[in-house]
Amino acid sequence: MKIVGISGSLSKHSKTELTVQKTLDFIDEQDPTVQTELIALSAYNLVFCDGRNPDDYEADTRTVIDKIAAADALIIGSPIYRGTYSGAFKNLFDLIPNDSLRGKAVGITATGGSDHHYLAIEHQFKPLIGYFNAYAIPGGVYANNGHFAGGELTDKNILERLANLAKETIRLSTLLNNSYEGPAETAIKRESLQES
Ligand SMILES: Cc1cc2nc3c(=O)[nH]c(=O)nc-3n(C[C@H](O)[C@H](O)[C@H](O)COP(=O)(O)O)c2cc1C
């Protein structure tokens, strides 16, 4: 099984990246047979989605799209910007093909300055995952700036919750075993959007 972590922050000392990496570390500890990889968007030069066929993207954009398509499950994370995920994070989900998350387990994390926007996981991130016919792990973990100290994620409760998110992501992905018998396509096809 391969689980890819996505950090949707472009900042240099990213709390989102720490959070997603910590979750991947818990996965490594809990099941060493699982292969994990972090995709920090700050390390890749992604172009903006311009509506072309996803097969036609090149360079870093191609690399990231392919890594996500090849993953069995994902741990996603974004800083909260203006009450929702970052623009960089949304752009990634505009770039990937409609079927690249179908039937996959997705663990959700978010980081915000305060707890004001913790429900963004329910109201913003989960509908995005739903669009792709993927399975969001119930819950999701929201860390605020007070949960970090000295460049580390230090809050015990958040760490416990991330360990649980790691466990549940492995468990659901194992149960799903890459078999998905739901709708083959998202409700609205990309082609029909281009024709209109
Ligand atoms: C442009 C911008 C908008 C932000 N908007 C919010 C917000 O609406 N709610 C919030 O709780 N924090 C907000 N923040 C704070 C960040 O979400 C927070 O510092 C986060 O931990 C940054 O993650 P990073 O270190 O991975 O970049 C904002 C920060 C920036 C730069």
Topology:
Layout: E1 2-7, H1 15-30, E2 35-40, H2 59-70, E3 73-81, E4 84-85, H3 87-95, E5 105-112, H4 120-131, E6 135-136, E7 141-144, E8 148-149, E9 152-153, H5 156-176, H6 190-195
Parallel strand pairs: 1-2, 1-3, 3-5, 5-6, 5-7
Antiparallel strand pairs: 3-4, 8-9
Helix pairs in contact: 1-5
Flavin mononucleotide binds next to helix 1, strand 3 and strand 5.
Describe the structure in your own words:
The protein has six helices and nine strands, in the order βαβαββαβαββββαα. It has 196 residues and is of the alpha/beta class. The chain has one domain: Flavodoxin domain (Rossmann fold). The strands form two sheets. Strands 1, 2, 3, 4, 5, 6 and 7 form a seven-stranded mixed beta sheet that branches. Strands 8-9 form a two-stranded antiparallel sheet. Helix 1 crosses helix 5.
Uncertain regions spanning at least 5 consecutive residues:
none
CATH topology: Rossmann fold
Mean model confidence by pLDDT: 95
Number of helices: 6
For the termini, the CA-CA separation is: 39 Å
Q: Give a short account of the largest sheet.
A: 7 strands, mixed
Q: What characteristic shape results from the CA principal axes? A: globular
CATH superfamily: Flavodoxin domain
Are any ligands bound, and if so which?
flavin mononucleotide
What's the domain count? Answer: 1
Q: Roughly what fraction of the amino acids lie in strands?
A: 15-25%
Q: Please bin the fraction of helical residues.
A: 25-40%
Output the structural class. alpha/beta
Give the C-alpha Rg: 16 Å
Q: Assembly state here?
A: single chain
Order of SSEs = EHEHEEHEHEEEEHH
The appropriate CATH architecture is 3-Layer(aba) Sandwich
Report the CATH C-level class: Alpha Beta
Number of strands: 9
